[in-house]
Specification:
With 261 residues, the chain is of the alpha/beta class. 39% of the residues lie in helices and 16% in strands. The protein is globular, with a radius of gyration of 18 Å.
């Protein structure tokens, strides 16, 4: 079928409905209400929390409906997927964030267009990014990823390595530190998830003593963003609660994992 000049396939309508704009707006309203409630429970200002929509596996032509629904920032895990969508939607002028692990040989692609990177976790990557950004005459907001769950399947700095890493960030003037990021333990038991968020908050409190710019916490996804907000999240990365269940298994993005949000 056609909608706003875009032909929707049977698979599109099965996944996103006959009117994706209406569905996305309704889902956004639901997520916003949940954010409002989480903020109210802990006495936080709603304006202190930024919603970052995660668009992985959502086709570029469907993201045009998301744009019509009011979404102006898209986040992707895989740089190849992000690059293709950025090129296909270049005229929209949206902001692109990369929130997944970046291989060093993909640095040149991210440096061309991304405005944020939420998975900085090594000096080699910082150095390569800084050099490439200098060539592109661009700057990049970065969040340092910390492995707070202790799972070997996840990327990120060991908590004990964070402060030494923070002390090196001044060597990379093209990188603009904004905060810390983590992927919490993937579990339906929030009693197991919350300690990951609490740990990142404590680490942030130590990190800002060395670099005041590292003030934000990027944590929480569709299954746990309310708990993350209650524990201090400034940025929540939400995909499925807005765009619906993904057709690919979570292990496609995080090897060894069985569930994500």
């Amino acid at each position: 079928m056609d909608h706003e000049g875009i032909r929707l396939s049977v698979a599109d309508t099965e996944r996103f409905g006959r009117n994706p704009v209406s569905r996305f707006r309704a889902n956004l309203a639901s997520v916003e209400e949940r954010i409002d409630s989480a903020c109210a429970r802990v006495g936080r200002d709603r304006g202190s929390v930024r919603l970052l929509p995660v668009t992985k596996t959502v086709p570029a032509h469907i993201l045009r409906f998301a744009y019509e629904a009011g979404i102006r920032s898209f986040a992707e895990n895989k740089i190849q997927e992000a690059t293709a969508k950025h090129d296909a939607l270049a005229e929209l002028g949206v902001d692109w964030s990369i929130v997944g692990h970046l291989q060093t040989n993909k640095v040149k692609y991210l440096a061309r267009f991304a405005c944020e990177f939420h998975a900085l976790d090594s000096l080699r990557l910082a150095d390569l990014l800084n050099n490439r950004l200098e060539r592109e005459d661009r700057f990049l907001d970065v969040y340092v990823q910390v492995n707070t769950s202790g799972e070997e399947s996840k990327f990120g700095l060991h908590p004990d390595a964070l402060i030494p890493f923070v002390d090196t960030l001044g060597q990379f003037p093209r990188l603009k530190p904004r905060g810390l990021m983590t992927l919490a333990l993937f579990s339906a038991d929030m009693a197991k998830v919350r300690p990951c968020f609490a740990m990142l908050r404590r680490l942030r409190d130590e990190a800002v003593k060395r670099n005041a710019a590292l003030s934000e916490l990027s944590m929480g996804m569709s299954g746990d963003f309310e708990e993350a907000i209650e524990e201090g999240a400034d940025v929540v990365r939400v995909g499925q609660a807005i765009f619906g269940k993904r057709p690919t298994p979570d292990s496609h993005y995080w090897p060894g994992l069985a569930e994500t949000a």
